[in-house]
């Protein structure tokens, strides 16, 4: 049991977390990523969206979308973050756009501004 606790503790030390907050006219969205040290991209991202009109919150699990390098394997550039709530897709782009869609239909599209908060764990 003690070995398991120590192993978990050191695993947490090797994780970095960082948050980005996107402020749009109608929403405040915070994306928090937890990744292993020296890992490129974020396969475990959390979306917390708050409506400025109603105060309603939504939390979703997702991932960072990465453009691959010329070798077709190595991730080179972030394209944004993707989250799903059933069949509704939430795309938050690196240039600060929130796009909510269902299939080919865009339900919401808003531009915003990013602020970054770095946290190491």
Model description:
There is one protein chain. With 121 residues, this protein is mainly beta. It has a single domain, classed as Lipocalin (Beta Barrel), CATH 2.40.128. It is built from 1 helix and 9 strands; from the N terminus they run H-E-E-E-E-E-E-E-E-E. A 9-stranded antiparallel sheet has the order 8-7-6-5-4-3-2-1-9. The radius of gyration is 16 Å and the shape is globular. Mean pLDDT is 83; it is low at 1-14.
Provide a concise account of the structure shown.
With 121 residues, this protein is mainly beta. It has one helix spanning 2-13, and strands spanning 15-23, 27-36, 45-51, 57-68, 75-85, 88-93, 97-102, 105-111, 113-120. It has one domain (16-113): Lipocalin (Beta Barrel).
Q: Low-confidence runs (pLDDT<50, min 5 residues)?
A: 1-14
- Molecular shape: globular
How large is the count of helical segments? 1
Mean pLDDT: 83
**Helical residue percent?**
under 10%
Largest sheet: 9 strands, antiparallel
CATH architecture: Beta Barrel
The SS-based structural class is: mainly beta
Strands of the largest sheet, in order across it?
8-7-6-5-4-3-2-1-9
The number of distinct β-strands equals 9
Strand content: over 45%
Kindly report how far apart the N and C termini lie.
23 Å
Question: CATH topology, which one?
Answer: Lipocalin
Number of domains: 1
CATH class: Mainly Beta
The ordered string of helix (H) and strand (E) elements is HEEEEEEEEE
């Amino acid at each position: 049991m003690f070995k398991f606790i120590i192993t978990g503790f050191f695993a947490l030390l090797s994780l970095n977390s960082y948050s980005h907050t996107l402020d749009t006219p109608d929403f405040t969205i915070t994306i928090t990523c937890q990744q292993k040290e020296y890992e490129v991209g974020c396969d475990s991202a959390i979306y917390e969206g708050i409506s400025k009109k109603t105060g309603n919150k939504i939390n979703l699990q997702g991932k960072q979308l990465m453009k691959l390098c010329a070798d077709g394997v190595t991730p080179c550039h972030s394209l944004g973050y993707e989250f799903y709530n059933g069949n509704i897709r939430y795309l938050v782009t690196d240039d600060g756009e929130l796009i909510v869609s269902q299939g080919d239909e865009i339900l919401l599209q808003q531009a915003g501004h990013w602020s970054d908060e770095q946290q190491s764990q």
